[in-house]
Amino acid sequence: MKRVFVGLALISASLTACQQDVIFLDESGPPAAPRALVATYYAGAVTVTWELAPAWNGEAFRVYSRRVTDSEWFLIAEVTSCAQDFCTYEDINVVAGETYEYLVSAVNDAGQETDSDVSVEVFVPDPIAPPIPDGTFVIALDGANYLIWGTASRAAGDFSHYKVYLDDGVTSFLLGETDSEGFLDLLAENGSTYAYFVTSVDTDGHESAESALAEGTPRPDFSGELMYDFFDVPASSGFLFSEDESVVPVVDGSNPADFDFRMERDPAATDADGWFLVVGDGAAVYQDGFATTALKCGVGADAGCVDVSSAPTSGYVTEDMPVQTETSYVLRVVGSGGGLHYGVVRISHLGTDQDGNDLMIFDWAYQLQAGNPDLISGR
Which of 2.60.40.10, 3.40.50.10140, 3.30.428.10, 2.40.110.10 is the CATH number of 137-216? Predict the structure, then answer.
């Protein structure tokens, strides 16, 4: 029911001065109703949103709620602050398995209320999170850590994405979110050990328990080199064998004259298929890859260690070479002095980062002496 409040000013008259006060009448009426009311559930809470009416004049709002099985409404909040013609309230006092109905009214200083044109309902589901991510593992790189894990969480039909956390032994920090089974931490510094865990999240925002911790210690080395697919990150898709450890070997892959090889991934490929090594000007790759267990088998290596210690002297091609993990590829390139040099790369991982960019992690060795096929000494 609308109520009108009228204020009257006192009238005074003076016979001697013939003076009369003005009468003021306040008929502003009830406030304008909230518009576009919406209620959504996510991560254990219901968020109620609405828009300000064009005639809104700074009035506050009252949020009412009830279970659909209740007959009466309950006042659960009063909202006095909105931003950019948009208002919101988060209701965390909800119970799984219940359907709630929400109504919002505008209220002025005189206590007059105007309800939204409609009420809205939202169901609160059971908070069943996806399976915990399995097989967490860190590949330590030079100035970065690459965290990978298994696909067990995808068994849930409502799986949405992962959250990656850094754990310092006392507390944890959210590093980022991704929908792939890989995350590249570029903030990790050489010489420091970092511990990570991963959780999975469903479409309703329910988060799983923590995965097992995985640790990694970045270090400067020819091991754990990282480069990207040319079609995703061209500036970091090329590789130039370096004779100087201080020179960054990962280069722009746009100009074949500037790299010995670059990586390409067929956009239509699935799983681990469709990766190619593309040689640059003057370079060639041996026609077959070598199944290996390590880049080199030195002192202390496993009895079954397999490497490529010497480069073939013939059989090189310039065609695109399909590549896979746990495999070494030998290249013949033109060195800085103009002579032919041999190099080898062993791919340990093909995957994606948190932004969906395809990447390759590999170890490499390079023979500094022109014409020498020995891939281990003289590195």
Answer: 2.60.40.10
